[in-house]
Structures are given as C-alpha cells and as structure tokens.
Fold this sequence. Notes:
This protein is of the alpha/beta class. It has helices at about 5-10, 30-45, 70-80, 95-100, 130-135, and strands at about 25, 55-60, 85-90, 105, 145, 155-160, 165, 175-180, 180-190, 190-195, 205-210, 215, 220, 235-240, 245-250. The protein is about 15% helix and about 30% strand.
Amino acid sequence: MPADTPARARASFDFKRTTFPLVSLVLRTPDISELQRELHERLGDSPDFFDQDLLVVNLAAVRDEASPIDFRALVALLRSYRVQPIGVHGGSPEQMAAAAAAGLVTTPEVSAAKSMAKSATAQQAEPAQKPAESAQKSPALAKTVVIDKPLRSGQRVYAKGADLVVLEVVSFGAEVFADGNIHVYAPLRGRAVAGARGNVDARIFSTCLDPQLVAIAGVYRTIETPLPADVAGKPAQVRRVGDSLVIEPL
C-alpha cells in the first residue's frame, strides 16, 4: 500500500457552520409596483444602504392574498437595491411554488435585521449547560460583547444573543449589530442595528450620535433625515415606540 503523499493527506474540503444574520423582508402586498414606490420613498437614492446582503422574504402577511406575486419582478427589484434574495417562508403552497420557480428556496422562519459578518465579527460564546436544578435557582446572566478598538469603514461586528459595547469610534461605513442593546462610548458615525432578532425593547446609546443609520427590530432611520439639533453629535439614545424610532438626549 503506497504511503500518503502531502496532497493526499490534506482534506479537499471542510464543512463549517457560520452565522450570517439576514435582511428579512416582511412582504405586506402582492403588488410589486406598490412595493417599488415605497422602497423608493424609504430608501431614496441610497446606493450604499445595502451591500449585497442576503435576504429572505416573509410571506405570512400575504399568504391569503388572491392576487399572484411576480417573484421574478420582486427578485429583480430587490437586487436593484443591492440585496440578494435567497429564500422565502410563510407563503401558501401556490406562492411557495412560484417562488421556487423564480429560484428562491424554502427557508425556516427568519427574524433578523441587516447584517453580515465581514471584517470583524464578535460573538459571545454560549454558556456551558448547567443542571436544571441549578438553572432554576440562579437567574441567567445578561451577555455582553465589548469592542475596545476603533471600527473602520467596511468593518462589521455582530453580538449574537448579547448586548454590544464599543469603546472607540464607529467610523462612517462601519456597522455594528446586536440582538440586545448597543452602547457606543465614542462617536457613532456608521450604522447601528439593535434588536437584530426582533427585540423591540432594545436601545442604542452613544456619547456622540452622528450615524449613517440606526435601526431597532427592523424599524430604521437614515441620514437622509437630519437629526434634531438637541441630539445631533451629542449624547443620545434611540428607542422604538410602536413602528417609529424616538431619539432623545441623554
């Protein structure tokens, strides 16, 4: 039997699990032209709002609609905003079949805001499992990810299942995401998304609020609308009230 050569001893591939929070689009109308108008109203001509992020379409709100959905037109529209639709969920059998014909796959239910790990990804390790009796006696501790270096343009950090604390500047073009709250004890000039998996009670805090975008559980605000003078570049917090964001001085 011949000895293994270095080429034969080396595996040709590996499978590894990764974490890629997605953009989740909750579709509320089968009318693609109506969707196009509203996308333009919300995003305007913001070519850098998305960066080829992966997207899943939630059809639960239109499942019972009689009008068919033109999924090929939907995919083309979303790609024009620099997102990559990859799947759908929550639709009727007919809708799911039409989506599949347009190249979209069936996915599990997804609730996630815009984020993809790129240059800098921070995740808090899950705590070791404890016996049930011990867990009942001790309340679960909140998890926090701390970043103590400046985040430059193009860098992204995601705190999965945790709050995120950033001690240095979040530069224009950088992005920070957290399933919990976000605290930036420095200028926040990039994008900040708190409550990334649907926590509407999450908040964003900064000692110098000057962001490209802030979002909480899917509700967002961009720099297209200037911040009020009492919070622009000053200590402030962002919280969600209903379907709106409230920005207040600290």
